[in-house]
Amino acid sequence: MTKPIWKSLISLVIDPEVSGLTCQECYSLMDQYTDLLEAGMPPSEVMLLVKRHLSHCPECDEIFQTLLVMVQEADHNQQSAPL
């Protein structure tokens, strides 16, 4: 007997690891994902898994958003530093 589609959809929303990555795997890829986004490069297929995980996991997304702000501030500070 197969699982009803609504149960599968609910488990996807409730359990972010269903998106293809565990939180630990997502966390280990966040710095690379942030660098790709900051460089304006399209993420690879692996990075699509990170994006999907972040869209379903508020805890990881909060860490990612913090990392993104830190990288943006660092870039801004480097650009405004005197030569």
If you had to describe this structure to a student in words, what would you say it looks like?
It is elongated, with a radius of gyration of 16 Å. It has a domain at 20-70. It has helices at residues 5-14, 23-38, 45-56, 58-80. It is mainly α and 83 residues long.
Separation, N- and C-terminal Cα atoms: 68 Å
The residue ranges in which pLDDT falls below 50 over 5 or more consecutive positions are none
Overall pLDDT level: 74
What is the gyration radius calculated from CA atoms? Answer: 16 Å
Principal-axes geometry comes out as: elongated
Question: How many distinct helices?
Answer: 4
Seen as an oligomer or otherwise, the chain set is single chain
Share of helix, binned: over 70%
* Approximate strand percentage: under 5%
Q: Decide which structural class fits the backbone.
A: mainly alpha
Order of helices and strands: HHHH
The largest sheet, given as strand count, sense and whether it forms a barrel, is: none
Tell me the number of strands. 0
What's the SSE blueprint?
Blueprint: H1 5-14, H2 23-38, H3 45-56, H4 58-80
Helix pairs in contact: 2-3, 2-4, 3-4
Q: What are the key terms here?
A:
4 helices; 83 residues; single chain; mainly alpha
Summarize it.
By secondary structure, this protein is mainly α. It has four helices and no strands.
